[in-house]
Design a protein that fits this description.
alpha/beta, 23 helices, 48% helix
Amino acid sequence: MKTIGIIELNSSHTKLTISKRTGDTFFTKIDEVVDYINIGEEATNDPKGYFIKPQRVAEVLEILKGYQKLVNSYMTDEVFVYATHAIKNAKNNQSLIAEVGTLFGWKARILTMEEEVGYVQSAVFNTIEAPKALVAIVNPTSIELVLYSRRNIQLKKVIDFGPENIAKENKGSQKDLAKILEEKIKKELAAIEEIKEIEPDFSVVAVGYAAEALARVSHNQKKYSLDIVHNYTLDKKDVRKAEEFLLGLEVDANKKLRGISEERADIVPLGVVALRTIFESTELEAMTISTHGLTYGAMLSHINPSIVEKPINDLLGYSLDKQFEEYEASQTNSKNVYNIAMILFKELRVLHKLPRTYVKSLRVASFMHDAGKRIGFDNHQKNAFPIILASELFGLTHRELLVAAFSALSEISTNLNPTELTRHREIITTEDIDAIKKLGSIIRLAENMDKCYKNLVKDINCDILGDSVILKIETDQDASFEIKEALKAKTDFFRAFGRTLELL
């Protein structure tokens, strides 16, 4: 196992992220520390740039000494220190980087803007299923835009100011500053022809502190039932509503909002203004939030360099393989149950009449049917529900994720609580509830057909005769025990499909 630390030195914070490699191509974050320090604050000015004051340099080094203790406690193999855009503009940045390398022995350097945007781009490509998108990265002192179609980059643009610059250089209320920022961004966007020509099938992906704060505020306003930010989607009304709410509060009130750090409360509203301005400059209908940015992309480049060159095509498959590698290998029949469930879904399609859009949810629920056993065998179907929701699974919407969690839960039909379903009714539909019952029944059948983890079932043929469903199992070994166990699902099968079940 290899453990890697990434330290990000930004204009307003330092961040240490420690991740461990799982298998050959996966990694899992195991710890993270963020310290808010405005490195450029009170910097000495110079016509050709600015100098970071010795006091600020000393504070950064003191923070890194603490990081060194944490790095050592995890016996971290390598540590990379990346100074970003704001540090690059300081005249004495090289001396800071050299001192970090000398004191701690870490690999430290200043990222070029191309590298910085590239890492964020890689993170978006490999965690968000958006074939065509305008990526908007709002940092405190810069705004970065990436436009791509089918992984082909059409535009990379850096706007060399951000909310922090506007707040420092101008006086007035938050609403006054918002107008100034909006006009400056509109002026920059007006000169970008590629943005004017964006086609309707594109989407906007927002990355950074403001994007995450925007999602949290929108969650609260909509009483959103899932506490998940990554891949959360908003329309223009959602964004405008959140912006108006934030601009209407005093800074001290912003500090008390759930999901917004006190140290960034003063620039969060302006960051949301920046995102809203970019979003409204297009005719696009949806904005998706990504919680994975520079650090995630940098970690990818070290753990699995091939992904940077050739992004993942099947994000969900990659995510499930990671789950298997980290938790399930040699402990479960995840892959067998998944394969059987896919066969059953196909063979029963005349009966269930579900569109293929439910295949993603079935993939997750069948593959992670045993996830609850990480807690214990008893009630493992119920325990699978929160584990699936909390797992880092890419390539499916929040609705598809919720359907998957409920499907694993409803493997035992009596586990399905109507009150819990009602709590999520702004996400799932009546059609989804019907699908959940059917998918849960399929998963239970699939699990029992591989009760001994022997992968005996090679294929299944389905015949529907009146009120009966006959499943003929193809196997080259004795599968009488598996058939007996599968028949124990007859009652739940009848509840889901209204048919009696026979197995041969």
